[in-house]
Amino acid sequence: MMIQPPPPGSIIQIDWHRSADSKEYLSRIRSKKQRRRFGLLEAPVLPPHLSVDTVRYKVFISGKSGVGKTSLAARLAGVDIPNMHYETTGIETTVVFWPVKLRENGQVLFFRLQLWDCGENALRRFDHLLPSCKEQVDAILFLFSFTDRASFEDLSNQIARASDPSDNIVKLVVGTKFDLFMHTDVTERDVRKFQEVWGLPVFRVGGDVVGGFGEVAPLLNALAERLWYQDCMAMGAAQPGPVTVTEARVPLPFRP
Ligand SMILES: Nc1nc2c(ncn2[C@@H]2O[C@H](COP(=O)(O)OP(=O)(O)OP(=O)(O)O)[C@@H](O)[C@H]2O)c(=O)[nH]1
Ligand SMILES: [Mg+2]
């Protein structure tokens, strides 16, 4: 079933990370000026009056070798991106927490996104890696690099390999190295055409990680909003409404 996602910002408050109201929550995923890193079993510690539900999702990052999958995982976690390309030799996971405020009832939720980053050459070499990346996956980020036309042309293969039209996995496309616009190999027109054909949103990222939430908020919010919407639909709610978290998504058993 192909679900048409709602217009951006109709379910969550997309500018919430800029409001005073979000400060207390965002301070839990930051220490000093840096983003806090979370291990597999760690979570932000909230005082009782801020206690909120956490919803957990698995996100697979797909794309040609060198497009910047490992870099995107670092960027979303607020860590400096690697300067050099070191092929990822297997699967690496990164946990990102992101607080979101629902429009409907003003409820705050922590999204726990476990990013699965697998080196493309390892993925091709070892047959068991792709199935474990795809297993119970909630969302896939399909990456291409603005400086590598072949990676853009490879998107349809990536999409066919990791998903099928009837699944209800959230799918987003991310164009990396947007900072290297002098060397761009993929035009705005190409991107627009792709969006028309595939109906998938395309995000642009690039440059050094400067810290702060502004640069990652659009992508994290879009991901959170679609994941939440997908869950509400799967619950059979006609409208994504005030569904309680326990109904919508029973916390999963620990999945490393
Ligand atoms: N200028 C610029 N360079 C980037 C960006 N993202 C990634 N890079 C560079 O691209 C190179 C490859 O990035 P990786 O993240 O290691 O690539 P990967 O997709 O994980 O590659 P595999 O693990 O081999 O599949 C590195 O040298 C990064 O510094 C970006 O947004 N801007
Ligand atoms: Mg990598």
UniProtKB/TrEMBL annotation:
Gene3D superfamilies: P-loop containing nucleotide triphosphate hydrolases. GO terms for molecular function: GTP binding; GTPase activity. One of its GO terms (biological process) is cell projection organization. Transmembrane segments: none annotated. Its main location: cytoplasm. It holds the Pfam family Ras. Keywords: Cell projection, Cilium, Cilium biogenesis/degradation, Cytoplasm, Cytoskeleton, Exocytosis, GTP-binding, Nucleotide-binding, Protein transport, Transport. It comes from the Eukaryota. Belongs to the small GTPase superfamily. Rab family. This is Ciliogenesis and planar polarity effector 2.
